[in-house]
Structure formats: structure tokens, C-alpha cells
Design goal:
Elements lengths: L1 H27 L12 E2 L3 E4 L4 E3 L4 E2 L3 E5 L2 E2 L14 E2 L4 E3 L4 E10 L3 E3 L4 E9 L2 E2 L13 E2 L4 E3 L4 E2 L4 E2 L4 E2 L4 E2 L4 E2 L7 E4 L4 E6 L5 E3 L4
Parallel strand pairs: 1-4, 2-5, 3-8, 4-9, 5-9, 8-10, 9-11, 10-14, 11-15, 11-16, 14-17, 15-18, 16-19, 18-20
Antiparallel strand pairs: 6-7, 12-13, 20-21, 21-22
């Protein structure tokens, strides 16, 4: 019994040490961004592509599985056909993330033009934000080899709450202090102080002059 408790203590101490080392490695291996933010944490594992096109605010906390991609050309190495010559698209991407933005885990942001996330945005897990789509003009050619299309900037304004498993598509602006419900696909812009859910996302409530959430008719 005493020996078992001793082993448990050793295991716990070892686990704590591994966690501390992982945190330290996470901080030491952060890349150089377009600016010099302070007090940021992006947990391992993570993948950050072309950080020189990414500007971060202070006091950011992103959980594991973060993928930040500033895409400067397409096809990328992973999407290039090994035997077929493809036309290369060139981009000047820009990702700007404000102060105190947080994400639970698995936040994916891919920009070919511009994605701006303002201060104090709250992301749950498994969020996909992409300002361009794979082309689908030719149904006889694998879509991964077709041009990126429908490229348009995305903006998520301050104080928004983006729920679990949300997808935000090109050209969308989400107004300040709005809420996007879990499993929603946002295809059109959402005005400020609105609650939107569904695929495609539709507004179900808005904050009105009586200072309360009011249901929207015909949602």
C-alpha cells in the first residue's frame, strides 16, 4: 500500500514535470510574427505558416491544434500534383488578431487575402475560418488541383463568441458582440449584437432598444 502510494506520487511529479517542459518548449519555439506581441500562448501541437504575414495582439491564448496559414501561393507543396504542371496563384495574405483573443482548441485560420479578428473574441473548439475556397468549375478534375476561388476578406468584430464546430466562409463580417451557435456555417454577414445558428446561419435573436434579446420572426 505504501509502495503503491509512493509510485503514484512519483508518476504525478513526473507528469507535472513533462507538462512544465512542454509549456516551456511551446514558448521557446514560437516563430517571429509581423510584430512583437507580449504574453501570448499557442499550445503544442500547432502549425504556423508564413508568420511574417501574421500580426498578433497581446495576451492571446490558443489551445492545442492551432493552424494559422498565411498562404502566399497555390498550389502549396501538399496540394501540388507530382506529375502535372499547375498554374501558380500568388497572394499577399494578411492575418490580424487582436488583444485577448482566446481559443479552446483546433482553431484553423487560412488567409489568401485578409482575415481580421478584433479584440476579446472568444472561440470554442474546431473553428474553421478561410477567406478562399477550392475551385469546382470542372467536375472531372480533382478539386484540390483547381484554382482557389471566391476570395474575399473576413472580419470578426470585437467581443464575439464563436461556438463549437463553426465554419466562417469568405466575405463574411460578424458584427460586434454577436454570437454564432455551435455547428453553424456562416455564409453571409451578421449584424452587431445578434445570435445566429444553423447551416447556413440565420439570425434568431437580436439585442434591441429595450435592452434584451428579442426573437427574430421568420428565422
Amino acid at each position: 500500500m505504501i509502495f503503491s502510494k509512493l509510485i503514484d506520487k512519483i508518476i504525478i511529479k513526473f507528469a507535472i514535470k513533462i507538462y512544465q517542459v512542454n509549456e516551456r518548449v511551446s514558448q521557446l519555439t514560437l516563430p517571429e510574427f509581423a510584430n512583437k506581441p507580449s504574453n501570448i500562448r499557442i499550445d503544442l501541437p500547432r502549425r504556423i505558416i508564413n508568420p511574417r504575414y501574421i500580426t498578433l495582439g497581446d495576451n492571446i491564448w490558443f489551445g492545442p491544434g492551432t493552424l494559422l496559414m498565411a498562404i502566399t501561393q497555390y498550389p502549396t507543396i501538399s496540394m501540388k500534383h507530382p506529375e502535372i504542371e499547375q498554374e501558380v496563384q500568388k497572394f499577399e495574405p494578411r492575418i490580424v488578431i487582436g488583444n485577448r483573443v482566446t481559443s479552446t482548441a483546433n482553431l484553423q485560420i487560412a488567409a489568401m487575402k485578409e482575415i481580421i479578428i478584433e479584440d476579446d473574441v472568444l472561440f470554442a473548439s474546431n473553428i474553421n475560418i478561410t477567406d478562399g475556397l477550392h475551385g469546382y468549375d470542372n467536375p472531372y478534375e480533382p478539386y484540390k488541383y483547381q484554382k482557389i476561388s471566391k476570395i474575399a476578406p473576413i472580419r470578426i468584430k470585437k467581443g464575439c463568441w464563436i461556438g463549437q464546430n463553426v465554419v466562417i466562409l469568405p466575405g463574411v463580417t460578424i458584427g460586434e458582440y454577436s454570437i454564432i451557435g455551435a455547428n453553424s456555417v456562416v455564409t453571409k454577414s451578421i449584424p452587431p449584437r445578434s445570435i445566429a445558428v444553423g447551416a447556413p446561419a440565420k439570425i434568431i435573436k437580436q439585442w434591441n432598444d429595450t435592452q434584451q434579446w428579442v426573437s427574430v420572426k421568420d428565422a
